[in-house]
Amino acid sequence: MIFYFTGTGNSLWAARQLGAAFGEEPVPVAEELRKNPSGECGYELRGGEHLILVFPVHSWGPAVLMLRFVRRLRIRNYSGQPVYAVCTCGDTCGLTDTMIGKALRDRGLPLTACWSVRMPNNYILMKGFGVDPDEVRETKLHTAPQELESIIAAIRGQRQYSHYTVGTRPWLKSRVINPLFRRFLAGPDSRTEFRVGDSCIGCGLCARSCPTGTVTMRDGRPVWGRGCVQCTACINRCPVRAIDWGDITRSQGRYHHPEL
Questions:
Q1: What phi, psi does 179 have (nearest 5°)?
Q2: Which candidate among 61, 64, 134, 137 keeps its CA 20 to 30 Å from the CA of 40?
Q3: Residues 6 or more apart from 28 whose CB is under 8 A from it?
Q4: φ and ψ of 181, to 5 deg
């Protein structure tokens, strides 16, 4: 089984590549959480089937919704099948592998291997961050399929592959910065600074893209409630750049995966 979370499409693209390789339809965890708003998310694995989690790295940790999903995940007939994690990241992952590994162990599941795949940056909600220059973006999009091919070969047992980019000061980033991010910027009571301009065409793509239902349409315009996980789907996927985060993003670029 392949479970994924995506905001701007990088992890969806990766999940689709894995799904095509193994003949499986990737399952979006955002929909699974909506189906089971308070209870466990239970599934069964076939004897030789593997479990693959695909998600972006947010603030040097697993995407919030993937963590929520894993903490409620129950594999009813688990009998030692391999469990893999594939992290899409703009640059580095910190201790994301350790964090997702602990969440899995708490549910009685091992982490067999964790890989990272460098994809274009999409986080633009804070000063000092932004999308990649065109040349860097195109280089990442060009090399990502090769990295996925190596991961697929490793899962099939055809070769060894252990690529995972930790980066500098991982403890500080994952143990200090990430908890602050999850508590104050991506927690269940988090407020947003999103605003919509007069160029909005009322297409509703922002609301349809929002994995948490934080964005709803009212009188043809988006309204943001609580519970944003800062996946940046709404702002990056707006076709007319009508959405901004305060004043920070006015001069920032936008990105979503070209195949999305």
A1: -60, -35
A2: 61
A3: 3, 4, 5, 6, 211
A4: -60, -45
What's the residue count for the chain? 260
pLDDT bin (cut points 50, 70, 90) of residue 124 is very high
Q: Reduced to 3 states, what is the DSSP secondary structure of residue 167?
A: coil
What Å distances lie between residue 250 and 56, 117, 223, 243, 244, CA to CA?
24, 29, 19, 9, 6
Q: Kindly state the tokens that stand for 241.
A: 């750049």
By C-alpha distance, which of 157, 75, 144 is closest to 113? 157
Written as six digits, the tokens of 252 are: 């920032």
Whole-model pTM? 0.96
Instruction: Count other Cβ atoms within 10 Å, centred on residue 108.
Output: 10
- Helix, strand or coil, per DSSP, at residue 60: coil
119 closest CA partner among 54, 177, 72 = 54
Specify the 3-state DSSP secondary structure of 69: helix
